Known about the structure:
- With 223 residues, this protein is α/β, with parallel strands linked by helices.
- The protein has one domain (2-219): 3-Layer(aba) Sandwich (Rossmann fold), CATH 3.40.50.
- Helices cover 38% and strands 17% of the residues.
- The protein contains six helices and six strands; from the N terminus they run H-E-H-E-H-E-H-E-H-E-E-H.
- The chain is globular.
- Mean pLDDT is 88; it is low at 1-30.
Amino acid sequence: MQSIVTRRNFLAAAGSAALASAAASAAEPAADGSLRILGIACSPRKGMTTAKAVQAALDAAKAVSPRIVVELIDLGGMTIAGWSPTPVKDDFDGLLPKLTDPQLGGIIIGSPAYFRSLSSLCKAFIERCMPLRDGTKPFEDRPVGALAVAGNRNGGQELVVQQILTAMLSYGMLPVGGKSPAMLGGTLVNAKDDVSQDDTGMQSARLLGTHVAEVALKLAKHP
């Protein structure tokens, strides 16, 4: 038992140090009250259909207000391990300053549907955010939306969206869907590595981005 407690204490200290460093490097809130919406594309295929779907959502979010600033974080090609009881050094460390940015207004997470479930990269990203539940809790009370891309219309997209939103509840985030008829979030079909021809799916991504931005603005402390 003593070894378990010691390891946990070490982990907590390491996590706190990483978060403190990230917070120190983060910019102060902008004087113009801008809010940053991050889009996290969790496909191992960099720049492909999931990233394009998330970018469509971000573009719609940006159009809501001049206060909204958007940024796509494409995890394709990155090495991100799942949660471990011992500290891990990989590409996730470089994401911490963005995730702890005081201007963070909300997050949109996109994943391909693999075997009717989220990608292992998406699950690893969510797990590694665990230290963000402590300290300043940068995710708490901020909107999160989700979208999924699959090879056919009934490829598990809604299951993946539900899995992502359920997991992000652990961080105190506020799940946000799209607007009717995209109530749950974005659900897109990948036809020959192209989601742009899926008008229904692309519209669901845009409706999701719009709603996340609108909620972020409503929740902002200084409207």
